[in-house]
Design brief:
This is MalT-like TPR region domain-containing protein. This protein is mainly beta and 65 residues long. The chain has one helix and four strands; from the N terminus they run βαβββ. The longest helix is centred in the first third of the chain and has 9 residues.
């Protein structure tokens, strides 16, 4: 996988919870300094959602081709 972190969008934590409830995300947790990493594999790419420590929001980082 090529990881080109060119786009970052802040998404509220509740949206991630909602997506998890709908089964749209596969959760792979790793708690490090209050960070929660959520991975979703789709269309052969891996999307990384990372909870920002200070903003308590979700940073959506796209792994693009």
């Amino acid at each position: 996988m090529r990881d080109l972190r060119t786009t970052t969008t802040l998404v509220h934590r509740n949206l991630a919870s909602l997506l998890l409830q709908k089964g749209e995300l596969v959760l792979a947790e790793r708690h490090t300094k209050q960070a929660l990493l959520i991975y979703r594999e789709a269309m052969g790419e891996l999307y990384l959602w990372e909870v920002a420590d200070t903003t308590q929001h979700l940073g959506l980082i796209f792994a693009q081709q």
